[in-house]
Design goal:
Blueprint: E1 5-9, H1 13-25, E2 29-33, H2 36-45, E3 50-54, H3 62-70, E4 77-81, H4 86-95, E5 99-102, H5 107-126, E6 133-134, E7 138-141, E8 146-149, E9 152-154, H6 158-169, E10 174-176, H7 177-185, H8 194-207, E11 217-220, E12 224-227
Parallel strand pairs: 1-2, 1-3, 3-4, 4-5
Antiparallel strand pairs: 6-7, 7-8, 8-9, 10-12, 11-12
Helix pairs in contact: 1-5, 6-7, 6-8
This protein binds calcium ion.
Length: 229
């Protein structure tokens, strides 16, 4: 596998340097910028395989960049945040970040997160071509990572796609939030279960005719979720 390219967006020079250094040592091709304007230029011209994005930036902040990026691309985003409040982290995930890490963090932990996210997104492309799963109103093509709902292609983030693919491959099986964290994130210790709830809601909004009365992803109260084909 050729080395993955990573864009680091961080206005604090010391953090930017340390993150860049560790990611380069881990074998990634790294570009770093200090603000959202430069980030957008790179994202338009030569998109990376993953973005490490500081939430609090001067000018265009991390939320705004995520929002803008998600309207056009599913490149994985790991957010750096100094905020400990759950609502801020959830807001980032709502906008489509794939993961977040709270400052202060160890650079090695960030490298592990990057590796885990890339293993899922890039590893998925290298696996043998799997056949699409087709239901009457929904088709999921793992090779192209494409989801078609009632004839319309929907943009899912990497995590949303992985979760939907997992559900669709295990119809009627009940998954707890812990299972889903293990299978989709693979690092259940670091992520809080609210993350699963957010992702399920976003998938429902994309695939269900009536997200408040879902047909495919059913809540099993007090346990988790199951997929109805
Ligand atoms: Ca900052």
């Amino acid at each position: 596998m050729s080395e993955a390219s990573i864009l680091v967006v961080e206005d604090e020079p010391s953090i930017r340097e340390v993150v860049t250094l560790y990611l380069e040592r881990a074998g990634y091709r790294v570009r770093s910028v200090e603000d959202g304007t430069h980030a957008k230029q790179i994202l338009k011209k030569d998109p990376p395989d993953l973005v490490v994005l500081d939430l609090m930036l001067p000018g265009i902040d991390g939320y705004e960049i995520t929002n803008w990026l998600r309207s056009k691309s599913d490149v994985p985003i790991i957010m750096l945040t100094a905020r400990r409040e759950e609502r801020d982290r959830i807001a980032g995930l709502e906008l489509g970040a794939d993961d977040y890490i709270v400052k202060p963090f160890s650079p090695q932990e960030l490298v592990s997160r990057v590796r885990a996210v890339l293993r899922r997104t890039m590893g998925g492309l290298q696996e043998k071509r799997e056949q699409p799963i087709v239901f009457d109103d929904l088709s999921i093509d793992p090779a192209r990572r494409q989801v078609i709902v009632r004839g319309v292609e929907k943009q899912l983030t990497a995590k949303e796609f992985d979760m939907l693919w997992l559900f669709a491959n295990h119809p009627l099986q009940v998954f707890t939030r812990g299972h889903l964290l293990d299978r989709v994130w693979g690092i259940s210790d670091y992520i809080d279960p609210g993350t699963v709830t957010v992702h399920v809601r976003r998938i429902r909004e994309k695939i269900e005719a009536d997200p408040s009365n879902p047909r495919h992803i059913i809540t099993v109260w007090g346990v988790g979720y199951r997929f109805e084909p």
